[in-house]
Amino acid sequence: MKFFIDTAKLADIKEAKDLGILDGVTTNPSLMAKEGIKGQQSVFDHYVKICELVKGDVSAEVIATDYKGIIAEGKELASLHPGIVVKVPMIKDGVKAIRYLSNQGIRTNCTLVFSAGQAILAGKAGATYVSPFIGRIDDQNWDGITLIAHIAQIYAIHGIQTQVLAASIRSSLHIVRCAEVGAQVVTAPLDAIMGLLKHPLTDIGLEKFLSDHKKVNAK
Ligand code: G3P
């Protein structure tokens, strides 16, 4: 399973990279705004900074919502760096644009996916990744993990090459559950990734090992 970090914050990206487990980055307009990145040139420059920091796929989202606009913006984003994957919303023009961009050899991430039907369309259109938002589904009292399992099963049955990229991850447990049900990629905030390290028995065990070592080795 690939690990992406879901942020535009360079410090968090560096920290996840330093752990040696980072395969890529996903961003969205809200995450860029959160970092105060505004204006098209600054946004583009920031994508390049992220790409130079991380060897892997970096999702950069289009703002346009019409077919021609998505294609123009998608081409521009893809030209910024070979690591860029163009993130396109799951709307009618988005699906058409994913088909076009995919035919041009431009990699895409179909975002804002909340149903298996939408994931089938993204797969048919040739998306490189499909991003079901599991936390937002849970927020609506539905089950995001079940959706990941359904999509993974459908893609496996039909040999669809699109990779399931579980997004809107809210906890370390979400990451583990996504791994269990067959997501090929998870994108998570830094705290959910770092939370995977934690277990109280690890801390208690280490403390005991070190104190036992100290007892016999004390001068
Ligand atoms: O990158 C898209 C997605 O991960 C958003 O997450 O927490 O805003 O639902 P969230």
Task: Outline the structure in words.
α4 packs across α5 and α5 packs parallel to α6. The protein is an alpha/beta fold and 219 residues long. β4, α5 and β5 form a beta-alpha-beta unit. Helix content is 54%, strand content 17%. It has an 8-stranded parallel β-barrel with strand order 1-2-3-4-5-6-7-8, surrounded by 7 helices. SN-glycerol-3-phosphate binds next to α7.
Features:
alpha/beta; binds SN-glycerol-3-phosphate; single chain; globular; 219 residues
Radius of gyration: 19 Å
Number of strands: 8
Across the major sheet, the strand order is 1-2-3-4-5-6-7-8
Q: Spell out which ligands are present.
A: SN-glycerol-3-phosphate
- The DSSP helix count reads 11
The proportion of strand residues reads 15-25%
Poorly predicted residue ranges = none
Structural class estimated from helices and strands: alpha/beta
Secondary-structure element order, as H and E? Answer: EHEHHEHEHEHEHHEHEHH
Largest sheet properties: 8 strands, parallel, barrel
First-to-last CA distance: 47 Å
Instruction: Give average pLDDT, whole number.
Output: 97
The proportion of residues forming helix, as a percent range, comes to 40-55%
Overall outline: globular
Task: Break the fold down into its secondary structure elements and pairings.
Blueprint: E1 2-6, H1 10-18, E2 24-26, H2 29-34, H3 40-53, E3 57-61, H4 67-80, E4 84-89, H5 92-103, E5 108-113, H6 116-125, E6 129-132, H7 134-139, H8 144-158, E7 163-166, H9 172-180, E8 185-188, H10 190-195, H11 200-217
Parallel strand pairs: 1-2, 1-8, 2-3, 3-4, 4-5, 5-6, 6-7, 7-8
Helix pairs in contact: 4-5, 5-6, 6-8
The protein binds SN-glycerol-3-phosphate.
